[in-house]
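protein under study:
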Amino acid sequence: MKQILDAILAGDSAAVGALDVPDHYRGITVHAEDAGMFEGLDAKEKDPRKSLHLDDVPTPELGPGEALVAVMASAINYNTVWTSIFEPVSTFSFLKRYGKLSPLTARHDLPYHVVGSDLAGVVLRTGPGVNAWKPGDEVVAHCLSVELESPDGHNDTMMDSEQRIWGFETNFGGLAEIALVKSNQLMPKPAHLTWEEAASPGLVNSTAYRQLVSPNGANMKQGDVVLIWGASGGLGSYATQFALNGGAIPVCVVSSPEKAEICRAMGAELIIDRSADGYKFWKDETTQDQKEWKRFGARIRELTGGDDPDIVFEHPGRETFGASVYVARRGGTIVTCASTSGFMHEYDNRYLWMNLKRIIGSHFANYREAWEANRLIAKGMVHPTVSRVYPLEETAQAAYDVHRNLHQGKVGVLTLAPTEGLGVRDPELRAKHQQAIDRFRNR
């Protein structure tokens, strides 16, 4: 591993292909034997620091159409939090189901799960049938793992019957020194970014692109009023950038003055601070407060000059969904994913059906959408939102911070990279966008 890292740090990535692949590596795991450790606790009380481990694990066998990548950096996504607290189900059920598909996928059904759905790194080896990538290529990975043996996925790979999220529903994820991916997960690393910056957009940037921009999602157009929940967070910060770039009018919902300031730094002008305005959409655990929906809608119209949102970019879920359905304009769209505050949504259907609104479910992105989202990053049109970076040894603390919403933007993790700031190949482009690249730092 040290020889591989030395070659990468020396800028001699081409030499990586001549080096031996280690037969083991360090990775962040959950253990099947721990799956019941949080039973009886509320989700907020479950602590990822108790369930995430740094283990030495065997390097998996490389199969056809696959690649092994030396991971320089990764990032924390909410799916790693879900994995660590075994919600909504233990991910070992995903691995067991995947393992039954073929003798090759049986590799994934193990008593430990190497987690993580982002990476930036260097290709170590490619399996039979891989022609587009070679050892030494500097890459990032999107997290769609798809078999494409069914006709269902050939119009949109997210519709494939064997579509999975790598590092969540498959093993050998990116929070590790080595990762196993399908070759059609790979994309070029943006040359002006550091390893940790390049690793951070993958999942959330692609998810936001499909959810908001793609015809498979809300199909945003110029002039659309877009209500964005958590607009300074890992997902919302990319939605805010896409709305601004695409000529839409973002209405950014945040939970503190500091988060409001980040949205202003991105160029947003219409901002609602939920904490300052004191919105409480639930009277108790079972009863929503429709007066608060109306007060919230009035505030949106006050900011927009009388317009209701054409699109509501939904991801908090249970806490906000009733309000989201209410405030969308007649004929408007609520596009939803994630549900970080709870999966069981409740809303008043009268406001949906009688006003001809639509709810669209959106989940990650297909390869084309992920490629387009990464291309915007590479061109400096959309920027990473890294606020803090942890070493691999402190990944559990990083996941805890995301679980407790103690972060802004994205939280990065150094895997093989010994320090932050490495991996920049285009300093001129970086200098042009340095201020935008750094705007989430130390917040």
About this structure: The chain has 15 helices and 18 strands. The chain has a mean pLDDT of 96. Residues 290-304 form the longest helix (15 residues).
